[in-house]
């Protein structure tokens, strides 16, 4: 299959981002390498027209802004989320019994549990420690080699396993970590891994947020490489696409990339879409531009929001060849068929006919086909950061995404041509002068 530098960057990003904290660090690093200036929310900001800035919160959410040379009269926003469903360790994680040290886990978000069995699992997240001199420090940890597994029960011991047996996350999903281990061994292992990755000795581990993840690397799949198979495509694929579009843009228009954490659990957090992160950053930016151009405060703030547009990017359900009856017959998006406009009459998606029209016109402009997803009328519909952000700020919004299979599985599948399609459309969106 031909070499594609964009896809190679995507696969590298997916592989190196096993948690929201790693994804945010990787995005911030790349943005800084390409000229974005990192800002600290606890410090005063001095902004200049035309510059590019990046801000993070909780180390797991990110906002990147491209500031216009002239007045800040409209913003082109792209939204995504950094978190994915999975298994996270409980605070007192060590479980000892029957000659095995196991890990107590909690299910994060709406994860498909069955695919987690018999996978080679690594461990990653962030750990906070007290150093020998009394300083508190947080750091990322990523154990990339397989250190745990959730073994299946043999069919001989459960003849009903293939007949829709329920899975109990409390009693049947504890990964095995160490044979013959004791409870204190997990703390010892964490200290050893921190020493190996950060050269830290004589530390006390105070707390952690750690996730298990599949160590199988992302791959192109199919005779002609038509597919991408990876963990966390929902929604690191959209984070990557939004970042690529921002970096590919011509830099003339005001633009924002917001990647929130906690979408999979409702977005109600300091750094989630229902929290104040985006509004806080935009208000600080607006205040400086408003003062510089002798604006009229709140009046120009509300005009800015209504003149702006948000494209919420979160993957869509592709028509599954084995389960075609799970789709409305007229709304089954195809893999590699172009970006999908997501519509729901009950506002689970924020798309309106006006915002959809803008997106379809952008697709026409760059020669990319668009598709439409609407859930079956007899099935519940998921949601995104789109309706939440629209409700918080009042910005006209639409929901779009790349079509995929296996959403919320430990390993998901999307088309290898679709990322480029959506990057092209979003780049045109950022460059577009008129949004109405």
UniProtKB/TrEMBL annotation:
**Gene Ontology BP annotations:** proteolysis
Mind telling me which InterPro entries this protein's record contains? Answer: Peptidase_M18 (IPR001948), Peptidase_M18_dom2 (IPR023358)
Q: Name one GO cellular component term.
A: cytoplasm
Which coenzyme or cofactor does it need? Zn(2+)
Record carries keyword Protease: yes
EC number, as in UniProt: 3.4.11.-
**Pfam families listed in its UniProt record:** Peptidase_M18
Q: Superkingdom of the source?
A: Bacteria
Q: Which UniProt keywords apply?
A: Aminopeptidase, Hydrolase, Metal-binding, Metalloprotease, Protease, Zinc
Question: Could you cite one Gene Ontology molecular function of this protein?
Answer: aminopeptidase activity
Looking up PANTHER family in the UniProt record yields: ASPARTYL AMINOPEPTIDASE (PTHR28570)
Family membership, please give it: Belongs to the peptidase M18 family.
Name of the protein described by the UniProt record? M18 family aminopeptidase
